[in-house]
Amino acid sequence: xxxxxxxxxxxxxxxxxxxxxxxxxxxxxxxxxxxxxxxxxxxxxxxxxxxxxxxxxxxxxxxxxxxxxxxxxxxxxxxxxxxxxxxxxxxxxxxxxxxxxxxxxxxxxxxxxxxxxxxxxxxxxxxxxxxxxxxxxxxxxxxxxxxxxxxxxxxxxxxxxxxxxxxxxxxxxxxxxxxxxxxxxxxxxxxxxxxxxxxxxxxxxxxxxxxxxxxxxxxxxxxxxxxxxxxxxxxxxxxxxxxxxxxxxxxxxxxxxxxxxxxxxxxxxxxxxxxxxxxxxxxxxxxxxxxxxxxxxxxxxxxxxxxxxxxxxxxxxxxxxxxxxxxxxxxxxxxxxxxxxxxxxxxxxxxxxxxxxxxxxxxxxxxxxxxxxxxxxxxxxxxxxxxxxxxxxxxxxxxxxxxxxxxxxxxxxxxxxxxxxxxxxxxxxxxxxxxxxxxxxxxxxxxxxxxxxxxxxxxxxxxxxxxxxxxxxxxxxxxxxxxxxxxxxxxxxxxxxx
Length: 498
Ligand code: NAD
Hints:
There is one protein chain. By secondary structure, the chain is of the alpha/beta class. The chain has 16 helices and 20 strands. The chain has helices at 57-73, 80-96, 98-109, 113-134, 162-175, 190-201, 216-224, 237-247, 272-284, 304-315, 336-351, 383-386, 402-410, 425-434, 467-472, 494-497; strands spanning 21-22, 24-26, 29-31, 37-41, 48-53, 148-149, 152-156, 179-183, 209-211, 230-234, 253-257, 263-266, 296-300, 355-357, 373-376, 393-399, 417-421, 439-442, 461-462, 475-476. Strand 2 (24-26) and strand 3 form a beta hairpin. It starts with 20 loop residues before the first strand and ends with a helix. The site of nicotinamide-adenine-dinucleotide has 29 residues, from helix 7 and helix 8.
């Protein structure tokens, strides 16, 4: 089969005005960190982009002190309508600088420009617009009369959707009246630092949002700081567990958005063309660096071979390469460490007896790359069916009855998301009701909306982000005392999971 060749269509980087060095953003100013520095590199070329300050414990303390001062003196005295005006302003500035943010995100993260341009950045603006609307309506959020902000929120985010995860954290925190100290991931600090410039442009009062860069030690310093009232973490289950232990027994509030191993279930009456696109979007969007990725495909046995064949045909048309090329479908893996993990788990898949297949594709010489991969003959006990690979790797299994599909889908320590493909609404509702996953998509996958709550069961964490629920994570009913955090990600109550 021959395919149309696409001429290169690289997005220009002339829109970027990057500095060669970035300090920490504390109390409204860029300031040098005292914990040394590190380079952020482009994962598609391994070329350095900028030198970034690492925040020491003392720097984190400076940031928390600034956030507390801003909370006491400014932010907690503003009306909701005035807080909302700042959020609207930030949303509009994100839209104005959208192209620059998209290019920076693709450069630093490796994701295709068409995703950062059409998904990440528009959703960032949408999140700020949405929560701007809530800022003066907290009394009507169904969270009790006169709900109050918690104080200083300490937030730690991962590298897969760097600016979007920042928006998920910062927008509801500010709308609810909290101030913030946030740490982006060490491999993707760039858009958070451009966002700091946006905060300056928006004239957000100094100290309301502080951005400290650094690795895990900086995140840990935020989490254990005694003057932080609320910790919001998105990242791996292992680190989430550590954080839960650190703050257990304190009066800090905690939300954890952790890993996943979602089942994408295709019944034999599903619209196959649509399902194929949904499966591809489910696992190859953002190189599979998606916590809610549909990494376990469960196909009804009667259509298994047809679906696998059509999937293979579709994968041969995916264009893997330069993230800044507008035709690219699959970009670079974010880091050498992540690439090593994807390779290791994929090799284990083969050793365990699963059948591995990738389309022929030429991968660039420099940078971190992994071809889209499908495993068939996978059993539920295989590590590739149980562990989060966080890469462009799909494990395919089959089932005969809805009951078997549900049992296999729920056979996981995680519980973040799931997908169901069927022509029958009644079947979709019946199966969705029995799946233990926080988000369930029907005849679609990986759709996000700021009004819709997102979060997991079991080892996928607890608490919800997005919507009214996401607001509740940053508010306490008037007169209440902040409740202690639970000791383990699995000890979440039924109420928290709902
Ligand atoms: P990670 O846990 O290694 O790192 C996440 C963040 O935590 C980074 O900023 C890191 O510097 C920081 N960190 C590391 N050790 C820390 C410590 N001891 N204390 C405090 N902070 C610390 O995860 P990652 O590799 O960056 O991200 C991938 C993971 O994130 C995947 O498991 C993915 O499923 C998950 N994720 C979940 C969601 C969700 O909403 N559920 C969204 C995106 C990513």
